[in-house]
Amino acid sequence: MPLSTVDRSVLEPVIRRLSALRPLSTEARASLEYAMLEGLQRVGSGEDLISEGDPVDSVRVVLSGWLCRYKTLEDGRRQIVNFIFPGESCDAHAFLLPVMDHSIATVTPVIYSEIKRARFESLLAGERSLAEAFWCETLVNIAIQREWAINLGRRVAVERVAHLFCETFERLRAVGMVDGNSCVMPVTQMDLADATGLSIVHLNRTLQELRAAGLIILRERMLTIPDLDALKNAALYSPSYLQLYRRAEATR
Hints:
- This is Cyclic nucleotide-binding protein.
- The two termini are 35 Å apart.
- The radius of gyration is 18 Å and the shape is globular.
- Helices cover 44% and strands 19% of the residues.
- The protein has two domains: 8-135, Jelly Rolls (Sandwich), CATH 2.60.120.10; 155-250, Winged helix-like DNA-binding domain superfamily/Winged helix DNA-binding domain (Arc Repressor Mutant, subunit A).
- The chain is of the alpha+beta class.
- It has nine helices and ten strands.
C-alpha cells in the first residue's frame, strides 16, 4: 500500500547504517532520501514481500519493522536464513539475477521504500559514496550468512540462541534502535526455532537455560540483556563481521 506522507525521521536508520559503512556526502544523502520518499510502501505482518522464483526489478529498503529471509522444503519445513531490520535493504543488487532464490516475509508491519532498478542504478552512478555503501552492505550480509552457517553447523543450542540475540542487539544498536540494554524482540518461538535449527521444545529449554543463568530477560516482546559481555562469552560472539561495532560505539 503506497504512503502519501511520513515523518522524515523514519529514513534515519537507513542513513545511519549506510554512513557507518561508508561516509555519505551531503549530496548522496539528499539524493537517497528523495528517492526513498518517492517509493514509500506499507505492508502488514505475515505477508511475503517477495517470493522465491519472483523476478526482481527494484530495491526495497526497510524503514521500520522486521522481515525474515527464508527457504521452505517440499514437505513444508522452513528455515529462516536471516532477519532484516530497519535501515537494511532487501538485497540491493538482487535485480542482477533473473529471479529470487529465497523468499522474504514480514514478521511485523513494515514500512519500506521501493526504488526501481533504473532509479537505483542512476543514484549509484551519480554518487560514488552511495555505491560503495550499498556494496559494503552486500558484503556484510554475506559475512552474516557465514556466521549463521557456523551457528547451525558448529555452535550448540545455547550458543546459537545467545549468538542470535547478540547479533540482533548489535545490528539494532547500530541504527539507534535499542534502549539501554533492551531492544524489541517481536518474533515468535517458532521464528526463533526456524532461525536456529532447533525444535520448539529444544528452543524453549534453551531459553529457560539462558534465563536461569541471568543472561537474558525476554518478556512482552522485549529482550533485555543484563550483561552483554557475559552473553557474548556464552555465544562465543565477536561483532567484527558486522563492520559496524566501533562506529556504533563511537556514536552512543
